[in-house]
Records
---
Amino acid sequence: MQPEDLLNEGNDDQQKAAAKDSPLLSLERELKFFKDSIQEVAIEIMVEGLSSYPIFVAHQHEVKLGEVILDRHDLNSEWSIHASTLEEFTERGVIKPELKDRFIKSYKNPNEFMCVFVVVPEGANFVYVPYKK
């Protein structure tokens, strides 16, 4: 037996269990499942002139940002998804006005990627998920 085996004993199982229980894995599955519906909403936001920067808020708690498009209670899923925009994010102070230009520069093509603001107990962050894989 190698010393590394002693030091890492059980870690593989613990890492696999942690990955299996990770809420982000369930979010990834749900985003894949609902990607067509989310993309339709993004296109609608842009075509109607509401914003060139649709943002989707994914959460497992109560969030008062955007409009509910997929409710976890109604769908018997783990995540709710709200549709929002860059304009609402800046208006509500989620994105500071001085950081708006930086956000726009990093924003990916909304016809190819969904911009998701993921809210978890540890905090929140933006991720870009491709509609096609």
---
Amino acid sequence: MAFVKACALSELEDDTPKRVELGGVPVSVVRTEGEVFAINDICSHANVSLSEGEVEDCMIECWLHGSSFDLRTGKPSGLPATRPVPVYPVKIEGDDVLVSVTQES
């Protein structure tokens, strides 16, 4: 699993998603509840950036239709989204937030 720097930890504000692109993959990086999460930035219901939504209770909400996704699992909490979005492993090294977007077979 290859980890690459997504951003600096000091750049992240609590409950405020930060959109980054890693190897052509749009990723939303979120610091909430004392942890850092990385989730695919595109809603599975509509081609909309999740990083423009709000974060609450370890969920990120799609601003367009209101579906929320669990930052730990990518699973939607309800309609209209029915499919999860990918989540990615995160490591913190010093002030660097490292994310792996490589898919294991």
---
Amino acid sequence: MTSPLTSPVPGVPEGRWTSRLWGTLLVLCAAMFLDALDVSMVGVALPSIGSDLGLSTSTLQWIVSGYILGYGGLLLLGGRAADLLGRRQVFLVALGVFALASLLGGLVDSGPLLIASRFIKGLSAAFTAPAGLSIITTTFPEGPLRNRALSIYTTCAATGFSMGLVLSGLLTEASWRLTMLLPAPIALIALFAGMRLLPRSEREREHNGYDVPGAVLGTLSMLLLVFTVVQAPEAGWTSARTLLSFLAVAVLLTAFVRVEQRSAGPLIRLGVLRSGNQVRAQLGAMAFFGSYVGFQFLATLYMQSLLGWSALHTALAFLPAGALVAVSSTKVGAIVDRFGTPRLIAAGFALMVAGYALFLRVDLDPVYAAVILPTMLLIGAACALVFPSLNIQATNGVADHEQGMVSGLLNTSVQVGGAIFLAVVTAVVTAGAPADPTPQGVLDSYRPGLAVVTAIAAAGLLITLPGLRTRRARGSVVVAGSTAEAAQPDRVPVGD
């Protein structure tokens, strides 16, 4: 796999990055940074938004859920669209829509319009995320160059998430509208830079038409699944509404699988899931993000509701985790080259389990350096190892024309995992809520939720363990429907 940007240049050592290559990666990182920034930044601003626009708590929820619904529901379609319509074209159009929706969100004076702008932003992110990831995997050849690029790219997501927490605390003090408007100029700068720097990509010429039934069924099933999970804690997990919604999801997914099996040009080629590495990457992504979102939800409630910390104080408490990820960005690629993705994913999940378990010690008068900081450092180290490795493992050995599809599938696993496990953690905490809400009683109701978070991370570790068996045979192997060269006998395959 060779790209014009990474082809050997006379007089330049092979493997050295050109300024244009760095510029391309910077544009893609900016989009990923904005996606993560937008998710975390809105949370702290919700009370101010509700007060200013006169919105109820249930309506405020949809400012967050609207983004998740658009993002998680359309990722499969976004990934395949990047393959069929051209990665560069899809990325740039979606980034432009993201900028306009950000501008709209900061100017509206209506709750429904604000929710609509958030849905549109999630929709556009559902196209930029898989398109951006597939541009990286088709621009950087598989191996050390791609591993380094992906480690930097995924680090920008963690950094954006952490920065969003801090920036939201600062900007909301002035106006909640600034939290909505901030992504707009950054997205526009990235858009203009991308028009000059991103490599032109051809549409997939030899495809068997557009899988319209699959696109409709896949999109509807993901939208309904995310909607049902988001609403389940409020409607009740055993309510007729929730059960009927899950039944409808099952029917839609069954129909989707049948259509994909018979389609000449499927939205998702189901054969990609015959690879054990691929399945472990997808399930690992669900456990990784699901456990972290659940932990952040409970830790934020603990710090603000029980300890009385301000939004900025809480954001700074999370900052060591994001800072650790940021400073390790240039080193993770080399570590992946040496040890392979399964070992790093397993090590990362082990650190997550330890970090979450340590947080179970919290009380109503914690010493930050002794109780909370160790958890944040362990989680930061885990994120630095797991997230890049999952992206590398999911995209290694996949043909160029299916990179968008696999990228969309991985991002779908991340978002759906986050939505499902956050809802489960919320339900567990709500079920254990004390009749007399004393501070100690509320803290005790959080502990089962933290135990569930720890169990989710432990499940991620168990999922990863079968992949630790390494193959050292020389030759070529079929991975996810494409042929990739196996590693030399003295080297562990990165994606094995």
